[in-house]
Queue: 2 jobs
Job 1
Amino acid sequence: MTHLEPGTARHAAEIARVFDGRQPLRFLKHLPNDDAFHRGEQPGGAVISVVGMWDSMPPPLLDAVRARREASLTGRCPTCDAVCDVRTGAFWHENDCHAGDPMIERPMVAWARKVGRFARGRRLLEDEYRRSSDGRTAE
Ligand SMILES: [Zn+2]
C-alpha cells in the first residue's frame, strides 16, 4: 500500500478498499512476525499485514490474535464489533476486548520472551484456523 497522509479523502478511500469484502482476499506469505494477505484484483489491490500465529501461543493469546487478525482483514472486530476508523486506520476496541492493544500486548510480550526467536513452534495459517474454529472458509 502506498503511503497516504492520514485524514485525507484518498487515505480513507484506501482503507475502505482494504476492507471491501466483495474483493478477493488471499494469503500471500509468512513474514518474520506477520502474515501478508492481498485484497483486490491483481495488478492493483492492497497488501494487508496481520500478526502471525504459532502453535506455541497459549490458547487465550491465540484467540486474541485470531480476533485481531480478523479485525485487520475485515475492518470489524469479531469480539466487540469495533469498526476501523477510516480516517485514521485505528480501531477503538471496548476496554475488555481481548483483541485491543492493552489486553493483547502483555501476553504477546510474555510469550515472545518465553519462546524466543527460534522456538515458536509451528506456524498456523489463517485458513486452518477458520476451518477449525468456526467452519467458515477464507474468502
Ligand atoms: Zn474488539
Note: The chain has a mean pLDDT of 86.
Job 2
Amino acid sequence: MSSIQITPVAHPANIGAVATNLDVNNLSEADWKVIHDGLYTHSVLVLKNQAHATPKAQFELTQKFDPACSGYGHGKTLDAKRSILHPDLKTIPHQPQVQVIGNGFVEEFEGLKDITLKHPHHKTFHKTAVPEAEDLDFTRFYRWHIDAALYDLQPPRVTSLMAVSVPKGRTQTLRYDDDTGDELQVPLGTTAFASGYAMYDILSDSDKEFARTTKVEYAAHPYIWMSSAKSKSTGLGLESDGLELPANELPPVDESKILMLPMLWKNPVTGRFALQIHPSAVRRLHLKDGSVIGDLKEVRDMVYRLQRPGIAPGLVYCHDWEEGDMVLFNNQGTIHSVVGAFAPDEVRIFRQCNLASSAPPEGPESLSQEAWTQPLRTYEPTKGPQAALQAWMKPMRAY
Ligand SMILES: [Fe+2]
C-alpha cells in the first residue's frame, strides 16, 4: 500500500495534480502504480520536495513508463559531439539520458564545470517580438511542442523535469499577439501545458471525425528543416514564408525513418484520445480517402485551426516552479511550451529526461499501424555531403 497523496489542481482542462509523501530515490511497486495512474489521469504530475533525487533515480522513474527503451528522446542529435547544435543543453556525464537546461553561469553541477545555460527567448524564434522596452513585463509562449525527434525515433511517453534552482519574483503578462487580445498572467519562467484531450473534446463533430481518420507526416530531419523558419506569435507553429531548408540542404534522408503518426493518441489508462500534433514539424496530412494535403501553408492552417482553441488562456496550465519539484508530464497527451525571459544573472538549473519510445503511440483502431511505417517518397539531395554538413551546423534548440 502506497502512502503517496495525489491532490488534483482545480483546472478547467483537468491538467495537473500534486503528489506528496514520496521519495523518488526509494519507490515501492505500490508507489509506482499510484504515480503511473496519477500521471495518465492528470497529464502533469508534480512530485514535491524531491531536491535530493539523483539523476539516476530520475532516469529510472522516467524509463519505468517504457521499460524497453533506454536512449534519450532526441537520440544522437543531442550527444556531446554535436553540442554545436544545442549549445544550451548539456548532458550529465554520469547519466547521459538526463540533460541540464536553464539560465546563467554555473560553476559546477553533476560533473559539468563552468557551464553557461541560456533560457530561450521568443525573439530568436518568432517572426515578430515583444518590443525591447516591454520585454521584462510582457512575454509569449516560446514554442508549443511535443518532446520528440520526430524522425527515426518515436515520441517519448513521459518527460521528467526537475527544478534544481529557480529564480523567484516577478510575474509577466503573456500575450498571444494574434487578433484575439488573449493574454495570461504567468509566473516568471513558467512551463505552460495544454491538454490534447481537452483540445480534442472541444472540436466540432466534423473536426473530430477528421482528426480520428487523418495521419500526420512529419518533415525529415525536422529541426534542421525548420531552422530558418519563424514562429507565429502564439508559438503554435510556423509562419509559411518559404524559409524551410530544401531537401538538397538536409542531411541524407532515409525514407523508412520518416514518421507518420495518427492525429489522435490514446491514453493507456483512461482510454481517451488526445489531439497530438507537433505544429512546427508537421509536413503533410494523409486523409481517410487516400488523398494527401502537401501544400505547407494549407497544412499549417488546418492544424492551427484545430489546435488554437485548445491553448485558450483558460485551458492552459502554467506551473509555478519551486525548487525540488519533479514534474512528470504525459508527452503523448499534452503539448507544452517554455515561457518568459530571464536576465543573464538569474540562475536557473533544471534536469530533463525523456526516452524515445519503443513503439508508436496508439491511435484510433480504424487506423492501420502498419501504414505509418511505410516508406513515403524519395528525397534526393542534389548537393554532396558538404551541404548536409553545413546544415547540421545551424543551431536549433530541441525545446
Ligand atoms: Fe520540451
Note: The chain has one domain: 5-366.
